Amino acid sequence: MLLVLCVDLDDDLGRKTGIPTPVIGADDVTEAAVALATADPEDSDVNVLFQGVNVHDELAAEGEAVEVAAVTGVDGPDVKANRAVGQEVDRVLAELSTGEEVSAVVITDGAQDESVLPVIRSRMPIDGMRRVVVRQAQDLESLYYTIKQVLADPETRGTILIPLGVVLLIYPLVVVANLFDVAGAAVLGILSGAVGLYSLFRGLGLEDTVDGAAESVRNVLYTGRVTLVTYVVALALVVVGGVQGVDTVDVVRTAQGSPLAAGTALAAFVHGFVQWLGVAGVTSSLGQITDEYLAGRFRWRYLNAPFYVAAIAVVLFAVSGFFLPDAPGVTALGLSELALALAAGTLIGVLSTLAFAVAESQLPSAEPV
Prior knowledge:
Layout: E1 2-8, H1 12-17, E2 23-24, H2 26-39, H3 45-61, E3 66-72, H4 78-96, E4 103-108, H5 117-121, E5 126-131, H6 140-152, H7 154-179, H8 184-203, H9 206-223, H10 227-256, H11 262-294, H12 304-322, H13 335-362
Parallel strand pairs: 1-3, 1-4, 4-5
Antiparallel strand pairs: 2-3
InterPro entries: DUF373
Pfam families: DUF373
Transmembrane segments: 158-176, 182-201, 222-240, 260-282, 302-323, 338-359
């Protein structure tokens, strides 16, 4: 048996005529259509009901076992309306009780009503679907529904409306700026830059990265992790080291009395910078080790990190000093002193590795979680 199902998702039929739903049978659906047309001639659901009766009559004339019914939802959220339609479809099927398999031809007036198709398909096969619109307003309701859905989505709304709003504000803000003797070109440049940065931000998908970073910072603050403090201190030490490196380059240039070669300038910068970088590395690694210990994930091998950083700093400090002349604040090293520094850096790394490997094999440490 074929069921011609007229869908009115927002219940215009019930709200405007007071007719109880579902409505079953060609005569009853026709009366409901006339009542709705009388109450609101402009309602598109009138066309749906008459179209349903028309399809019913055509199929019945061909000898098809067919029935027509009108089901409605509620004037509210789509999920609630879809559930109401599903309940009415169940009532229609219960009243038919033909013993035959029932399939449906669904009649709607636009894309919004078609959101209920999965609900109907879960109860019976759908052999066809017909959308009824007024010829003079072809696809108008579908366009309206699509725009409504797009603007209802917070992400899409922000992507479209924020740049549009900034663009529309450019002219009035420039006018206001001119009234206060502020250069309108400056305002235009700032707003254009803001739109450009926002477009790049959205286009590159950086919002997830920023959200993740903000969430990490919140977690660090709320859990009291020591690394937050040590990382800030390390960053400050790196900045100080950069300034010290630049100052060392100036000192060596003054002592030499001539422009420096690229290699000498690099060695001077590293010589002034690396000691601060080493302290920053030791500070940050100690903070990380502390957090691992407090979290119960401490391993003895983690203590290698500050020793490795110190060994690398010693080697770089000695190598850079070997290429520099005597100058205030510069530790110029000879070949034998360079050899001793390299040996010391190697010993620091090797001995720390061996010591903590033995400690890890002999002493208990927290198991990773």
